[in-house]
From TrEMBL:
Keywords: Cell membrane, Membrane, Transmembrane, Transmembrane helix, Transport. It is a multi-pass membrane protein. Belongs to the binding-protein-dependent transport system permease family. It is found in: Cell membrane. This is Carbohydrate ABC transporter permease. PROSITE patterns: ABC_TM1. Signal peptide: none annotated. The chain crosses the membrane at residues 7-28, 72-93, 105-124, 136-153, 191-213, 233-257. InterPro entries: MetI-like, MetI-like_sf. Residues 68-257 form the ABC transmembrane type-1 domain. Its main location: membrane.
Length: 272
């Protein structure tokens, strides 16, 4: 009976996995096809012949390299800023005692329930008054504060024994030195998780660049991909090739840092 249940369970998991990965496999396969091969029945998973010209069009007909550079610039600086700010705030909520600490933290967590769509207009008004529209700085500033990042790191800092912090303070270390030399080295798994999540979020962000950027030379990869799609309407093979190019950095990051993501989620109390 138990063996039969296991067989059913693994068969169901395999089916669900295939359903999830099917669009991804179709995208990669289509990116190497000619237009006449896209909607053939049954699906031709391995194109014959293989067409590499779709990728040539992606990199020659549109400034994809510029889109990559812009996205990398925004993603790196936004990630660094968010990690620094989140780590300092998380340390304060976890290890520093002050009146109303839990109330402030609860209110801050409550902002996670507010959809970004409800604040994008007042946020745009602030950015506009600062004369930062059509700049990458507008995208970076919008990513610096993260309730999720503070929650993630606070949960990890809470697991660090208070005795370590107290010992550092007795030895004369200030809050800054305690934070930098005691807490941050202990929080490497959680920091790695936040870095990866933030980078992926910024890299895949579409709405913010759509709202703030007007100049094509400043487009990020997602906005550039949308522009590329409008320029190649009905050319599904070329569009899929551009989409694959946009996903490559994310896939590399996930495959390289998969272990850090898992460890960070487990140690931060997010598992399950």
């Amino acid at each position: 009976m138990k063996k039969a249940k296991n067989v059913i369970f693994y068969a169901l998991m395999f089916l669900l996995s295939f359903v999830m990965i099917f669009p991804f496999l179709w995208m990669i396969s289509t990116s190497f096809k000619f237009d006449s091969q896209v909607f053939t029945t049954p699906i031709e998973w391995i194109p014959d012949p293989v067409n590499f010209s779709n990728y040539v069009k992606v990199w020659t007909e549109e400034p994809f390299l510029t889109f990559y550079k812009n996205t990398a610039f925004v993603a790196v600086f936004a990630t660094v800023g968010q990690v620094i700010i989140s780590a300092m705030a998380a340390y304060a909520f976890a290890k520093m005692k002050f009146t109303g600490r839990n109330i402030v933290f609860g209110l801050y967590l409550a902002t996670m329930m507010v959809p970004w769509n409800t604040i994008m207009i007042p946020q745009y008004q602030i950015i506009s008054k600062l004369h930062l529209t059509d700049t990458h700085l507008a995208l970076i500033l919008g990513q610096l504060a993260s309730a999720f990042g503070i929650f993630l790191l606070r949960q990890f800092f809470m697991t660090v024994p208070d005795e370590l912090v107290e010992a550092a303070r007795i030895d004369g270390a200030g809050e800054g030195r305690t934070f930098a030399q005691i807490m941050l080295p202990q929080a490497k798994p959680a920091l790695a998780t936040l870095i990866i999540f933030t980078f992926i979020q910024v890299w895949n962000d579409y709405m913010a660049p759509l709202i703030y950027l007007n100049t094509k030379e400043k487009y990020t990869i997602q906005l550039g991909l949308k522009f590329f799609q409008s320029e190649h309407t009905m050319q599904y093979t070329v569009i899929m090739a551009g989409t694959v190019c946009a996903l490559i950095p994310i896939l590399i990051i996930f495959l390289v840092f998969e272990k850090q993501i898992t460890n960070g989620m487990v140690h931060s109390g997010l598992k399950g």
